Recover the amino acids of this structure.
């Protein structure tokens, strides 16, 4: 039961192409799990411009801060993660202070590839010990894989030492049966392409991780009858209107929005078919407000998404199909 | 009538950098501006990092690689114009970069075969940014193009992109290098004579990486030693190029709440960094014309004419549905207008805002690119 596995995971990694609603989904999963009685932290990764103030009502800091009952929020910023990790990995406090104060060492750690990713992953693993669930809002697709594959590179290069220890710890964490990854997608061709590529890369490069669950955001369910579609097509041909082209005329004006809605339905159907053919059958999160004309703020998006997930969860538990 | 500011940019600038969050059609906007500039008689290259496949195909790019592929232009453009497109392949770029800055083939080989280098070349999460700036300098410097239009990677990375030259320079900072290379340069074996400041640094790093690895890491840096002048000169040149009078940044966004926030963020970042930003391109706008009072009646009549063979009341149901959809579209357009005003507040008086409507279907052929570019430059239907 993919949705149940996803929402009952201890580590829930969320990624996807930029602009698909990754952060909203991470926030919604956090909200729902907290409501279901888990102690949850939603963690952003080194975010410059956090969307969380809008989504969850608070700017995240490195240390988790409560935002609702059972729900904490944090931002794993790299310099603080480095300090946190040094304190945990090196038990001599004097040495940690020397490392942190030495400009050259700092520049070196900043410049050495993989250090950043390692300390961030170490922080995620640490949070997993402290919460029932850690929901990580990872960077977009390619960067997320870049972060997740660092432990394997470290394992190849290092026989021993603190970074090797983190690598082993993280690989073990990713291999746990209750670690899961969600890819947020949209019913758009290029987003679906990237989702499929990402799933393939994950399978090849982070092989211990369970198969990803695709969350198809802004899905439009069919509402036009077959006859209505046929008629719309006839009218379209009769008037020669293309949506968005600014070609005026009273009838053309009215057809434009209809064509657009039909197009969204088609795109959703096509995305589901393509993903399902590759065993990536998506869970659908409905588009809020027709034609994106949704006027609620980001916090409302999160609430609606959490409700959609809750409905999906109870349908899945009752043995009903998605959709 | 062509829109004068954008028209001027397309005719005069040498480098346009499109920045913005993902999913707003940045690649498409970059490509359509490149087409418009080529139609104005310029030799143009559009350099993209994360392209939509079909767009790539429509531009004639069958594969990833660092070759500029010529794109056929439609008739009717000003004479002398040409368009090339290039999709960045980070692996090829990094190899070419090493080969170029290394003093000789042997040094290049030493780096390319270093175990650490090979591991990181595959996995540096930010390598796309380094490689993009590298390739960008290369093509701008080549003199083969009058204008280069760059489609940068999406949001969080785009800042990395602006920082990439600096970060690369830090990585190869002469001072750091000196510390790490000192034991070698003075002919002393690593681990035998660790003293003074470099000894402290080595020992501290030993705590982090493990002592055995430090030797290997030091070898890696030693192999890089011959390259750092090349790297530093290159990154300084890129920083200079970003700020040059012949360069303009364009912030690309969609009229959604989050994208508009990101656009404001970029405007602030660019201003803070003193980088020349021409303004904001708002893509995928909902466009509505004026509504005629009798439109629904006219549509109803037309629908009944075409209803033959369909279930009863199909025409009435569809017309009602279309009327409701149209009202929602109008609400959306009004909402977008308010969001645009919000972007406008973050703009300097010298900056412009350009809009393009959401086109039906995904924009994935040259015709659609030309139409989109036409909307932006105000000269097409």
């Amino acid at each position: 039961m993919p949705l149940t596995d996803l929402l009952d995971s201890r580590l829930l990694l969320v990624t996807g192409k930029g602009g698909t609603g990754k952060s909203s989904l991470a926030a919604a999963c956090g909200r729902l799990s907290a409501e279901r009685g888990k102690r949850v932290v939603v963690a952003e990764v080194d975010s410059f411009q956090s969307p969380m103030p809008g989504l969850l009502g608070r700017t995240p800091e490195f240390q988790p801060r409560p935002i609702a009952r059972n729900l904490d929020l944090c931002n794993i910023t790299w310099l603080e993660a480095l300090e946190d990790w040094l304190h945990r990995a090196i038990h001599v406090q004097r040495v940690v202070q020397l490392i942190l104060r030495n400009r050259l060492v700092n520049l070196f750690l900043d410049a050495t590839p993989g250090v950043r990713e390692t300390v961030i992953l170490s922080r995620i693993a640490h949070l997993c010990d402290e919460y029932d669930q850690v929901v990580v809002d990872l960077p977009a697709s390619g960067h997320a894989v870049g972060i997740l594959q660092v432990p394997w590179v470290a394992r190849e290069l290092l026989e021993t030492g603190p970074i090797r220890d983190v690598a082993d710890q993280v690989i073990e964490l990713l291999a746990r049966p209750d670690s899961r990854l969600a890819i947020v997608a949209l019913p758009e061709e290029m987003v679906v392409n990237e989702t499929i590529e990402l799933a393939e890369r994950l399978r090849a490069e982070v092989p211990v991780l369970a198969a990803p669950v695709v969350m198809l955001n802004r899905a439009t369910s069919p509402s036009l009858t077959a006859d209505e579609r046929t008629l719309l097509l006839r009218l379209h041909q009769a008037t020669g209107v293309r949506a968005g082209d600014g070609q005026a005329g009273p009838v053309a004006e009215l057809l434009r929005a209809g064509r657009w809605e039909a197009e969204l339905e088609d795109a959703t159907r096509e995305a589901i078919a393509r993903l399902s053919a590759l065993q990536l059958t998506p869970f659908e999160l409905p588009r809020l407000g027709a034609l994106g004309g949704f006027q609620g703020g980001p916090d409302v998006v999160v609430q609606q998404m959490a409700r959609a997930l809750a409905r999906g969860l109870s349908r899945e538990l009752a043995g009903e199909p998605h959709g | 009538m062509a829109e004068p500011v954008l028209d001027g940019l397309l005719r005069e600038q040498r480098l346009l950098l499109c920045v913005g969050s993902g999913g707003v059609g940045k690649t498409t906007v970059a490509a359509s501006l490149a087409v418009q500039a080529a139609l104005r008689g310029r030799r143009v290259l559009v350099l993209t990092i994360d392209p939509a496949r079909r767009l790539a195909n429509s531009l004639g790019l069958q594969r990833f690689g660092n070759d500029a592929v010529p794109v056929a232009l439609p008739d009717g453009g000003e004479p002398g114009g040409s368009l090339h497109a290039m999709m960045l392949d980070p692996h090829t770029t990094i190899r070419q970069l090493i080969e170029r800055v290394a003093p000789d083939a042997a040094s290049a080989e030493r780096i390319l075969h270093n175990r650490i280098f090979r591991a990181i070349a595959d996995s540096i999460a930010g390598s796309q940014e380094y490689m993009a700036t590298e390739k960008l300098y290369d093509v701008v410097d080549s003199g083969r193009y009058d204008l280069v239009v760059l489609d940068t990677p999406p949001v969080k990375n785009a800042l990395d992109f602006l920082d990439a030259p600096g970060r690369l320079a830090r990585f190869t900072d002469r001072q750091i290098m000196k510390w790490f290379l000192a034991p070698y340069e003075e002919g002393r074996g690593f681990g035998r004579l660790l003293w003074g400041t470099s000894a402290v640094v080595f020992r501290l790093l030993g705590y982090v990486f493990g002592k055995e690895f430090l030797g290997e890491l030091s070898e890696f840096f030693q192999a890089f030693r011959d390259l750092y002048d090349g790297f530093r000169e290159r990154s300084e040149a890129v920083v200079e190029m970003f700020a040059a009078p012949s360069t303009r940044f364009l912030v690309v966004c969609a009229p959604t709440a989050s994208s508009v926030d990101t656009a404001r963020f970029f405007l602030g970042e660019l201003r803070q960094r003193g980088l020349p930003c021409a303004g904001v391109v708002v893509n995928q706008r909902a466009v509505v014309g004026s509504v005629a009072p009798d439109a629904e009646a006219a549509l109803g009549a037309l629908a009944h004419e075409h209803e033959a063979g369909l279930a009863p009341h199909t025409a009435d149901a569809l017309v009602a549905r279309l009327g409701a959809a149209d009202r929602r579209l109008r609400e959306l357009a009004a909402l977008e207008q308010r969001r645009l005003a919000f972007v406008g507040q973050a703009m300097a008086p010298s900056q412009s805002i350009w809009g393009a409507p959401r086109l039906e279907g995904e924009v994935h052929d040259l015709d659609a690119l030309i139409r989109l570019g036409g909307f932006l430059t105000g000269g097409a239907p």
Q: What stands out?
A: The radius of gyration of chain B is 26 Å. Chain B has two domains: 2-109+126-171+231-289+350-377, 173-226.
